Amino acid sequence: MTVTDDASSAPAVEVRGLVKRYDKVEALRGIDLTVQRGERFALLGPNGAGKTTLFSILATLRAPTEGGARVLGLDVVAERDAVRRAMGIVFQEPAIEQRLSGRDNLLLMGLFYGLGSAAAKKRAADILGELGLAEAADRPAKNLSGGQRRKLELARALVTDPKILFLDEATLGLDVDARRGFWAQVSALAAAGRTVFFTTHYMEEAEVADRIALIDAGRIVALDTPRALKARIGGGVIRLKTDDDGRARAWMTEQGLTPEPGGDELMLVHADPAGTLPDLLRHLPVKVLRVEIHEPSLEDVFLKLTGRGFGAAPRAAERAGGKVAGRREVNGGASA
């Protein structure tokens, strides 16, 4: 792997030729990507696409089968301990101790990483205040709301003042308001200069990123800004659900239209969708159950590139690799 050796000028994340196999199943199939310092970078894909496997390698919880990766210029295998000290991480699963208060969780983290008692107390107080958790700081974590617990996970990741944050499906299970609150905090941290690398399957979360990598079946299928990715669609989108999608697809093709493959409904890209739709509905030889017109979305891009939507079943590769357990801690706790 040819990567930048000078850690001070190296990208935040550098991945080259990354392959991960579980027995005969390839979870990652030659991943290449670079994330610049200060960038908000989203890894977007459906469940089973390879997001968690790639994340776990960058988090030093798994070793690649082939290729390599660096975080802030540090090799994730050869310099694992240094990588762990340099990053803050929020897993899908809880890593905080539920019986301890929020404050004590942060104090424990600070002491683990060598902060003195006074410094750890000050750091905990500062972070709790910054994230709006000061009033709840002395309650057991198990008694906090779901949104407060996720913010506490974020606070825990910030104790060491890391230059890069890794977030793996960090808002999974939260309601819309709690997710918005969490991302407001993350956006503020990014605005202060931290690199944020996050995985998600929520489209609206990916929209906050400076760049997005779309991943499917262990491969990066596209990597660009949100605006540039959606511009690949080349028009507005008509989505249709009929009582016979196969017949509707065949008829559209005969008319010189090109419905996109895959998904559980028909997707048609057209330069003038509003002008085309009335004529389309008038002549379609099937019953239309549902129809909508919208500007291109990231899911439309994914469907166009892969032929399947985000609701498809998980791939065998990700099932073979399993999930990254929050208790297999990086910044504070047992090693993997």
SSE order, as H and E? EEEHEEHEHHHEHEHEEHEHEHEHH
Structural class: alpha/beta
CATH superfamily caption of the largest domain: P-loop containing nucleotide triphosphate hydrolases
Number of helices: 12
* Uncertain residue ranges: 1-5, 313-336
Q: Give the N-to-C terminal Cα separation.
A: 24 Å
So, CATH architecture of the largest domain? 3-Layer(aba) Sandwich
Helix content: 25-40%
Strand content: 15-25%
Let me know the number of strands.
Answer: 13
- Oligomeric state of the chains in view: single chain
Which strand order do you get reading across the main beta sheet?
Answer: 6-7-8-3-9-10
Output the radius of gyration.
22 Å
Average pLDDT value? Answer: 87
